[in-house]
Amino acid sequence: MTWSENDDNVGTYNFAFENGNANYTNYTYTTTLTIIYMPSGVSGVTTTSTVTTTVPTTTTITPVPPTTASFKGNVSASAPVKMNLTNARASILLTTSSTVPMPITSFVSNITATAPAAPAGFATVSVLNISVNTTANVSASVTQGYPCSDNASLIAPYIFKNGTWAAITPFAVNATACTVTYTVPKDPIVGILEKVPTTTTVPTTTVPTTTVPSTVPTTIPVSVPPTAPPSSSWVWITVVVIVVIVIILVLLYYKLSHRKHHGFKR
């Protein structure tokens, strides 16, 4: 910016440099310029006060993803309408079988923060408010993203109508891209809900310990099998041995007796 001085513009001036792009964070930089001149009719040395302001050469601007998307124009079989809502990782594809271009006005917004509460046992992931105004017979296909850290088997789309959430069927889940795709009517509030896993608490039961006296005797009797009776052969051998011993004793007795008688005769 250049500034040309003369006697008519003495004073203080404020400047504001503003970023006007709505897709980025609004940022305004202000500075002040003071110009001093000697009043008219006063003689002497002219004094000039110079104010130097350094404007930062680099400003970090963080893009803010839009929370709404809209379209106004025509829709036909050869010219479908697609709205992307990066804030919610969502896209809405409006198609029709009409070969004649039909006027259409569509709007979508991310209302997750202000959405109706999820039913018991569910958690809200992402909710959209979709509005389509057209006389054409259109079909709205919605693709919504969900955090990849969530379990895909617990994710499902729902529509809010008559004051309650109702499941949308059919729908397709892409576990690789972490998205859900489904078809909705023209003017719905739809969203992705996640089923909250239930935690089952198993009660702990303490069973008292009871000492039961043992009925088993400490000494276990040993069953001794009965002695088998001797066989007949052993009986006969025993009898023979006894007979032999008796005979030997008898012979010894007679022999001793015979010696005694012969002694008395002498």
Give a description of the structure:
- With 266 residues, the protein is mainly beta.
- The chain has two domains: 1-64, no CATH class; 68-195, Chondroitinase Ac, Chain A, domain 3 (Sandwich).
- It is built from one helix and 13 strands; from the N terminus they run E-E-E-E-E-E-E-E-E-E-E-E-E-H.
- It has one helix at residues 232-265, and strands spanning 11-18, 28-35, 68-75, 81-85, 90-96, 102-110, 122-134, 138-145, 155-161, 164-167, 172-174, 179-184, 189-195.
- The strands form three sheets. The protein has a six-stranded antiparallel β-sheet, with no helix packed on it.
- Strand 4 (81-85) and strand 5 (90-96) form a beta hairpin.
- It starts with 10 loop residues before the first strand and ends with a helix.
- The mean pLDDT is 77.
Question: Could you give the order of the helices and strands?
Answer: EEEEEEEEEEEEEH
Question: What is the distance, rounded to the nearest whole angstrom, between the alpha carbons of the first and last residues?
Answer: 184 Å
Tell me the count of domains: 2
User: Judging by the overall fold, what is the CATH architecture of the largest domain?
Assistant: Sandwich
Gyration radius from CA atoms, angstroms: 57 Å
Give the overall shape, derived from the CA principal axes: elongated
CATH class of the largest domain: Mainly Beta
Mean pLDDT: 77
**Uncertain residue segments:** none
Number of helices in the DSSP assignment: 1
The beta-strand count equals: 13
Portion in helices: 10-25%
The name CATH uses for the topology of the largest domain is Chondroitinase Ac, Chain A, domain 3
Oligomer: single chain
